[in-house]
Amino acid sequence: xxxxxxxxxxxxxxxxxxxxxxxxxxxxxxxxxxxxxxxxxxxxxxxxxxxxxxxxxxxxxxxxxxxxxxxxxxxxxxxxxxxxxxxxxxxxxxxxxxxxxxxxxxxxxxxxxxxxxxxxxxxxxxxxxxxxxxxxxxxxxxxxxxxxxxxxxxxxxxxxxxxxxxxxxxxxxxxxxxxxxxxxxxxxxxxxxxxxxxxxxxxxxxxxxxxxxxxxxxxxxxxxxxxxxxxxxxxxx
Length: 237
Hints:
This protein is mainly α and 237 residues long. The chain has helices at 2-38, 43-52, 56-67, 72-82, 85-94, 105-110, 114-122, 129-153, 159-166, 168-183, 185-204, 211-236. The protein has two domains: 2-162, no CATH class; 184-237. The chain is 80% helix and 0% strand.
């Protein structure tokens, strides 16, 4: 009886902390569904896109690359590089997941996004199998259902509202980036450097569409490693 109450309590906690993510994901997923339809991707493929990938930034980038006629190999490589950060996220959470049965870890790992990672990191005292599974499932469901709704009814939505949906992803990026910038000036400088690197690669026209993004990610990541290592050494002196 006590165990059941504990599980119910953890489930309620998972629902409560998932609500902001659900509210944030749904309109952005609708924008993705609408954009996928405008890119002439079928409803089934669009739905599977969100079901199997479940990575907003990568999905929007993939749409741009598909629209530009980039080869599937380059799209896979670009999305892989963009999602490498998830390896670090799940690795850092692995220490906190010792109480979770190993059979659930692959499922939980699939559900880790920037947002769920942040929520779990700020609620380490609540971590349990029930809490994490509920959080991930509700976030995932919001994204998948939002994608389907956006594809089906997106064109019915007034044009001004469609435009506001399309900038939702940028708002989400800003919400993730600005708090980190407040914590460290290094992240602010790295963000500026990354933007400059991509602008140079894009307007140089030296690379085919898609490779400018891939090289931009690689170069920016390498510069970030060097930048932070040097900053760390200076603080130790």
